[in-house]
Amino acid sequence: MSDEIKWNRTISDVNDGILANLGKPHPSYYIAWGAAIICVLIGAFTWGMEMTVGVGITGKNSPVYWGVLITDFVFWVGIGHAGTLISAILFLFRAKWRNTVNRSAEAMTVFAVITAGLFPLIHMGRFWFGAYWIPPLPNTNNLWANYRSPLAWDVFAISTYLTISLLFWYMGMVPDLASIRDRMKGLRRGIYGILSFGWRGTAKQWHHYEAGYGFLAALATPLVLSVHSIVSWDFAMSIQPGWHTTIFPPYFVAGAILSGCAMVYTLLVPVRTMFRMEEFIRPEHLEACIKLTLLTSTIVFYAYGVEFFVAWYSGNPYEWGIFEKRAIGNYAFYFWVMVFCNCIFPLIWWSKRMRNNMAVSMFVAVLVNVGMWFERYNIIVSSLAEDFLPGSWGHFQPSLSDIALSVGSFGWFMFWFLIFCRYFPIVSMSELKLIMPKPLSKKH
Amino acid sequence: MKRPGGILVIYKYLDQVCDAMVAIRGRSDFKDHEVFSPTSYHEIDEALDAGPSQVRWFTLSGALTGTLTGFGLGLWIDYDWPLVVGGKLPGLYSIPSYVILGFELTILFGGLMTILGMLVMGRLPNPRQRILDVRFTDDRFGIFVPNVALDGEQARLLKQFGAEEIRTIESE
Description:
Helices cover 69% and strands 0% of the residues of chain A. By secondary structure, chain A is an all-alpha fold.
């Protein structure tokens, strides 16, 4: 696709253009950063309250013990899927449009997974009583974690995903950090020199770097597909109606990529304007991101349909009961928001004109993110609230603390993302140079 | 350790540096020369003709260690404190549950060892970084040949490929 792009710039313009973000930022940057800090403080205060008063301040109660906090966990893990998908899978497929968006998508992944990792701890309240038994730590009782439990698998899946995503992101950045080092003077030069490990850009370094990057991509590719599959087994391995279904792993992975790509778009459109990168992050690249979002939206649409069909065709009254109630019961509002935001509104992207209309696409991408949050809420809450026995049914209502903790998580995520945008190269300069016309002295 | 001086030849174009690389490849009078590039052009990799990177052995050893560790961890814990469910004995009967541990640790250890391989083979971290020209991380290519002089045969050869600049680097 990007082969057809008529670049107005050469590789000599890349460093100057991309590193403009290291200069004085637009005032809107400080406003966004301040807003993020306020949200973090709201979240931190609420978490402190929860640790002091108890988990009862959230909406959790019998029978819904997984409420908004686990919804937030699954949501943020899902957001974290686009980065490594774009960097690893699209790298192996040699999709060139990834070269302009992979860096910020990977940063988004790292910060989203860090945010997600907080939620099981927040969910536990006084987490220090509850978290120590999940890793295999030797202890005097000679007790170990039960590795037949998907919750214990999940700990391994998320921590592996975070580690690999972080390493992938950072190693990809090393040559670019060296570029910054070479433009700086004094203390900043020293700091970027340490951060870039003393990279010199020799042909031998590039040779091993490229090989290693390829291996990391090959390792990360099954990892991307496995992480949300394993998250989905937190649900699918139980016998809860609405959860106990074999379609969950691919359905969750498609949903995660849908929300991740929508979030990449939501973040990139303002970032490219704020840091004046329109010449490098081209409309064609953003359109490719939208196409991927549309593709995964159709997969999710299909999965919603299959879920209903299987619930009906199975003849299992508990299963069908849950699905019927999802559509017309107490939680119907959440269900229909989910369907419209994830399946119906994205249909507008079949039109090329709409895909290229950034205001419209931005609006729909935000709606997709809203829809994906509602999807997780719908799955978790509706199944737990009304399972087999009517005598044990209950109702879940998010509390103010739930909302405050969710707001805090958005602030926490944005806080780190904005720091990244200010001090690190937002676009991978060394990879961007690869998709631009090669500097050749003669016509080949 | 003292770092040798020599000549630094700077090129503006990719094909020029590749032609120069091919011409001097394997020659004893260009021993220990270094080539610099702003990004990982495949043309340069081909001209380098270095064969497959040794990083692959780091990746393989890490991944295999991870697989064994994952399954080993599950089995060892299972034997140490059996959780008998449905009358199933510990150990081999429970192996399907440990596929996740084996898989995740394969990726984790494989990834960590790949990073280690990239660092070791690329001679990183390199605190005594010797930056010969800051343009090599921007848009220029270069060849550094140690222990030769500006008026030597080597400099003349490299210049004829269209060098933009050629200068002496002092030993330090």
